[in-house]
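pls design
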């Protein structure tokens, strides 16, 4: 399993999938849902799965999870810059059509 995690972690796509899985496990959300006890318990269950995934990453290599967070920040910044560039290009194309 360790080799499989390392292989997945070696690609940008693999990092995106791992981070998406952690997001789906609600590890970055508040679990408490006020008076809705069932919702709180449901979120806590999802978070338990996310914590197991993080624990497995830590067992394989204690630097995997911190590196994942840094890599995701870089990927998000790259995605944001690419989206801004596309928007600017599209804006320029619209301007050319109006001319």
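designed seq:
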């Amino acid at each position: 399993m360790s080799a499989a995690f390392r292989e997945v972690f070696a690609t940008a796509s693999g990092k995106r999938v791992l981070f998406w899985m952690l997001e789906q496990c609600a590890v970055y959300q508040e679990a408490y849902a006020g008076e809705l006890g069932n919702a709180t318990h449901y979120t806590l269950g999802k978070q338990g799965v996310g914590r197991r995934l993080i624990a497995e990453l830590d067992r394989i290599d204690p630097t995997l999870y911190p590196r994942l967070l840094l890599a995701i920040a870089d990927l998000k910044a790259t995605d944001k810059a690419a989206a801004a560039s596309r928007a600017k290009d599209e804006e320029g194309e619209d301007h050319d059509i109006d001319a």
